[in-house]
Amino acid sequence: MLPRIENYEDLYCEFRWRIPQRFNIGVAVSDAWAARDPGRVCLEHFSPDGAHLSLTYAEFAARSSAFAAGLAARGIRPGDRVAILLPQGFEAAIAHTAIYKLGAIALPLALLFGVEALAYRLRDAEAAAIVTNRFGYERVAAIRDDLSDLRLVVLAEAEELPGTVRFDRLISGEERFTAADTTPDDPALMIYTSGTTGPPKGALHGHRVLPGHLPGFQFHHHFLPQPGDRMWTPADWAWAGGLLNALLPSLFFGVPVVSSPAQKFDPHMAFRIMQDMDVRNAFIPPTALRLLRSVERPRERYRLNLRTIGSAGEALGRETYEWAKAALGIEVSEFYGQTECNIVMDDEGYFTFFGRDDDVITSSGYRIGPGEIEDCLVGHPDVQMAAAVGRPDPIRTEIVKAYVVLRPGVAAGEGTAADIREWVKNRLSMHEYPREIEFVDSLPLTTSGKVIRQLLRERTVAEGMASVAMGS
Ligand SMILES: CC(=O)SCCNC(=O)CCNC(=O)[C@H](O)C(C)(C)COP(=O)(O)OP(=O)(O)OC[C@H]1O[C@@H](n2cnc3c(N)ncnc32)[C@H](O)[C@@H]1OP(=O)(O)O
């Protein structure tokens, strides 16, 4: 925990890492609070019809222990990878916590992923189990024959589907479970990279990944926990941002987390969630803040009680920062990860984060490796060659732009482009599809036949600047 020192220099000098010798994320975010304050609310689910639900730490601890016992009874062992393909909600939080208590490894997967992205990650991680809903079940059913390690599919639905165990059945048994006595270095969480250099890799984190995030989290949320604090993020908890900058640290500090149904981001709905659920702290990526700007005079339209906003994933920019200060009365705390290395420090020691300077595309706060998109594009029957780059965009920082060489005889046109976009959305991911496609006769190649993305990036940046200059 951060010492409460308001002066940065003193705080910096006083700070020491204090990581306990034994630490289990699941115990820290549930059982520890259930013992101290069982009736305290830890999760609240927003429902558009006003029928919100809440869960206490005592219920959370009991259900996650029962889930851990249920997984163990079905042969899931410490060290096994257990995928979670669920929207924000009680089930996702319970599944995470149970997996940590069991000493297994949580593998969060985004709902936006298409079948190829899911198949790749599930196979590569040799996942033994997956916890999902009907939407995810259908995607997994299409690839299940190729997943020889997958022994268990847990379904968070009221219905029975073939080859699955219902979530509520799994937790209906034994509620006592002795959590694994883990060290901070025992594996807990596997998050896939975005594939900067080649295919995405499963980055394995020990239980210390949570304590490692706490000081930065507290710092950006002005010494959270404060009375009345309540956290919400529109980001899927499957991303490192949603999980490690919102869900888990808040639960650790006894701050209730608001969950909301997965849907395309709607600025008015976002304000309503923050109003109705009395959200005090939010993790809102820059793109979502820019989308919120479309709502005029938000504080006159919505009763907002925000105290802090953290933002990450892409550069926030001065305009959005100033807008949030004026329109929401909040100075957004921007933070960056260490791979986002295009950062400049001025004479006074202030850092300016300019975004990335490599092939990775930064769109809507997602880091997108071009390789996977290109692989997916060339799998399309009409595509001979393809290259993906980021095109600057005022709302989403960048959008994915694909340069595509079609096979001989295929007509270039909006119909073909729409078909290619759908192909990538369904196979790879809904957030990685090329919003813009340009058909070209050839691509610039090195002598060894690799696409020179740098040239295409420069071209697309120049086009972007020209269109801004022309006012389009
Ligand atoms: C340490 C760190 O990692 S820090 C930051 C990490 N990054 C993040 O957490 C990602 C942050 N970004 C986001 O959460 C989102 O992009 C937002 C909130 C900014 C914007 O959300 P959206 O506008 O809905 O777009 P998003 O990029 O998520 O979705 C891509 C597509 O999937 C579709 N989609 C999204 N959710 C759904 C859904 N539930 N059902 C159907 N379609 C959906 C969208 O329609 C969109 O396509 P479109 O723009 O052509 O309509």
In short:
It contains 16 helices and 21 strands. The chain is of the alpha/beta class and 472 residues long.
Description:
This is Acetyl-coenzyme A synthetase. GO terms for molecular function: ATP binding; CoA-ligase activity; fatty acid ligase activity; fatty-acyl-CoA synthase activity; metal ion binding. It comes from Sinorhizobium sojae CCBAU 05684. Belongs to the ATP-dependent AMP-binding enzyme family. The protein has 16 helices and 21 strands. It is an alpha/beta fold and 472 residues long. It folds into two domains: 243 residues, ANL, N-terminal domain (Rossmann fold); 114 residues, ANL, C-terminal domain (GMP Synthetase, Chain A, domain 3), CATH 3.30.300. It has a seven-stranded mixed sheet with strand order 2-1-11-10-12-13-14. The chain has a five-stranded parallel sheet with strand order 4-3-5-6-7. Helix 3 packs across helix 4. It is globular and about 65 Å long. Bound molecules: acetyl coenzyme *A (ACO). The site of acetyl coenzyme *A (ACO) has 23 residues, from helix 9 and helix 11.
